[in-house]
Design goal:
alpha/beta; 2 domains; Aldehyde Oxidoreductase, domain 3; 6-stranded parallel β-sheet
């Protein structure tokens, strides 16, 4: 099994193509009955406009959606992935077969509204911790089938990816510890598979467990739902020996105080699971013309 996904241009195109194919099959099925009312030779131009300010994300998914329905579709982007747009701004223009534009509209906007929402939310959290040593990190709390797309959006918003899934890293939680017989025991077993993993991390719930984990050689520790004073003490006890990550109960209002404890990472499930879609609209901006 492969380790963490790397978002190279080629890999991103393959990922977006697969996601777009699945989404179009779901939406179009045996054929778009309404778009079929339009002459197949008709060409059209359209603009996609943002109705609210956002950090744009999803270019590869939008392009894959149009190109699967019309390989000759031409897109011009005015706001690139990672850039902020304002309400009313045109994000991109597209020229293609009219049928393709009509059939692709909802799917491309679904990708754009979801991924831009994740990128925008992530950017807001990243801005709050600016100037500290803390990174904003995502989790596995993603939409089924769109995890990699959402993790790309987190990166686009300035965040950092945690493990992709259960196959690329070891994250030992309380039930793993209980089943293995203790912190020292489970870390000893983890050492035997460490070479197969991107990292080994263990979750602790109090300062005593942190001390046990450090004594057993932990190099990455997740501090779960600890109070602010305990987090400050955890940083002191750790003294730089392990990478420290905070998880649980993180709010935007309390984020700065958490970052100022000196922890390395703050993982936040809300980046990908509690999001409000960004509003976009597509409008034909010129009369349809014959091919």
């Amino acid at each position: 099994m492969k380790k963490s996904f790397h978002f190279s241009a080629g890999a991103l195109a393959v990922l977006a193509g697969a996601d777009a194919a699945r989404a179009l099959a779901e939406d179009i099925g045996d054929g778009d009955l309404t778009a079929g009312l339009i002459d197949a030779a008709t060409q059209a131009r359209a603009q996609v406009q943002a109705r609210q300010a956002a950090v744009i994300c999803g270019q590869a998914w939008v392009e894959a959606t149009f190109h699967q329905l019309d390989p000759q579709a031409s897109l011009v982007w005015h706001v690139a992935d990672g850039e902020r747009c304002e309400a009313g701004q045109v994000v991109f223009e597209v020229r293609a077969q009219a049928r393709a534009l009509l059939s692709a509209e909802r799917t491309c906007l679904n990708f754009l509204q979801l991924l831009s929402a994740v990128a925008t939310k992530t950017a807001g959290y990243v801005a709050v911790v600016a100037g500290t040593s803390s990174q904003i990190v995502d989790t596995r709390k993603t939409l089924p089938g769109l995890r990699l797309a959402q993790k790309y959006a987190v990166l686009t918003g300035g965040g950092t990816n945690h493990r992709v899934g259960l196959y690329d890293a070891v994250l030992i939680k309380e039930n793993h510890i209980a089943a293995a017989g203790g912190i020292a025991q489970v870390l000893q077993r983890a050492a035997q598979v460490a070479a197969q993993a991107d990292f080994v991390e263990i979750e602790v719930e109090n300062l005593d467990e942190l001390s046990q984990a450090l004594a057993a050689g932990a190099r990455m520790v997740l501090l779960d739902n600890m109070s602010l004073p305990d987090l400050q003490e955890a940083v002191r006890i750790n003294a730089g020996r392990a990478v420290l990550e905070i998880s649980g109960g993180v709010t935007l209002e309390g984020l700065r105080a958490l970052a100022e404890t000196g922890v390395d990472r703050i993982s936040i499930g809300t980046l990908t699971k509690d999001i409000q879609a960004v509003d976009f609209s597509m409008r034909f901006d010129a009369p349809a013309v014959g091919a």
